[in-house]
């Protein structure tokens, strides 16, 4: 179908003395339709793709980009997915100006859905098993909403968003990157292909990096002599198992919302063990701080030291949030970036030239940053942002009530030529060229691409993630000429866009 490209108009409307956000098109028709009339695939189409035995191959909901584009091409800029087995109705929005208006309107106390099983653990199971170990009213950033979320976010913002504090980690994060490069060299076979699970290796790098910030220490993830029963190994296994089990509960068909399934019971145990291990490592770091006996200036204190000054419970909850949200995100982003550079050798050569010219990783490398930005445009770790509306909206001729889940389809929009010319091409230059250039990224609506989210619920670990990725990518391209063989890298969409093997990288010495 031909989709209207009319520029939306946004205004405030009063209905029954309640101010609501109205997003309408330039069309003359002002008759609003119910959200139930929003076009979308039938429930039967969804069932056919969710239950393998039922057959059918029209919609593949594990392919985030293609399903997003197919739904847009079939139904237009506003799509409805019906509720199914515990999953709520989801409205998909592809109009960037409408996305902007809703996100801005929801920016006081926004509700971001997701992490349902983890939220259930923190609100109900943790309190039953608490044994006075932690404050039951602290739920963290990932799972909480409302005033308690706002209070927690306001508490940790000055620590995690302070550039001077994050800069303290530059040398340590770079040390992890160099250690990982050495590990990859040792894992190469005769054909320069990594002889182990590449996805696991990337997760080890990411976990080792984020643990420096979250737990104030290195976990020695690369130490082959580390005992399998050590707390470090247990945490490594836990992080891996939590990603898989949590995704199965929250994004696949599961009956845990109705009765305690085996997967649900396992997840509750994993969440508890992770929090206990985070507390264990933080206690060890506190002991080491005490032994040092040094008085530090505020600018010299680490993230963990500053969080501990606020409240130990805050430090533990924030650490578990960072371990849950800060491993798969950076590892999958880095894998996607390496793939795009491997199949675009001229871009990789240009990046290597910059790295060889600017050898100090603490100095700004603009092309390196552009390479990561472009990969996050094309192969982002999440397909879009989600909000649960707190008020009624009139969007493109339809009424969307409060309490509705709305997904802002950033990845699909980012791959449309109307927003980014030559959208399917990997062109880091679009982030560096001047305004007069047709490729200039600023010509796109700013709400087309939001890889770190928007507003008060934007990623609090953005500065940390950027430091990790820039340091690691710089060291990799400095040491390796990365190539790719075989079919393109594939991804599977769940809570994140997970890169899936085979990982056909070749790491030749540069």
User: Within the CATH hierarchy, at the fold level, what is the topology of the domain at 116-379 and 450-509?
Assistant: Cytochrome p450
- Gyration radius (Cα, Å) is 23 Å
Can you summarize the main beta sheet? 5 strands, mixed
- What is the 3D shape? globular
Counting DSSP H or I runs of 4 or more residues, the number of helices is: 18
- CATH 4th-level superfamily of the domain at 116-379 and 450-509: Cytochrome P450
What's the count of strands?
13
* Poorly predicted sequence stretches spanning 5 or more consecutive residues: 1-21, 24-29, 53-57
Task: Report the end-to-end length measured between terminal Cα atoms.
Answer: 49 Å
Helicity range: 40-55%
Chain-averaged pLDDT: 88
The strands making up the biggest β-sheet line up spatially as 1-2-7-8-3
Secondary structure category: alpha/beta
What would CATH call the architecture of the domain at 116-379 and 450-509? Orthogonal Bundle
Please explain how this structure is put together:
The structure is a single chain. The protein has a domain at 116-379 and 450-509: Cytochrome P450 (Cytochrome p450, Orthogonal Bundle), CATH 1.10.630. 47% of the residues lie in helices and 11% in strands. It contains 18 helices and 13 strands. The strands form four sheets. A five-stranded mixed β-sheet has the order 1-2-7-8-3, covered by helices on one side. A four-stranded mixed β-sheet has the order 4-5-9-6, sandwiched between helices.
Short description:
The protein is of the alpha/beta class. It is built from 18 helices and 13 strands.
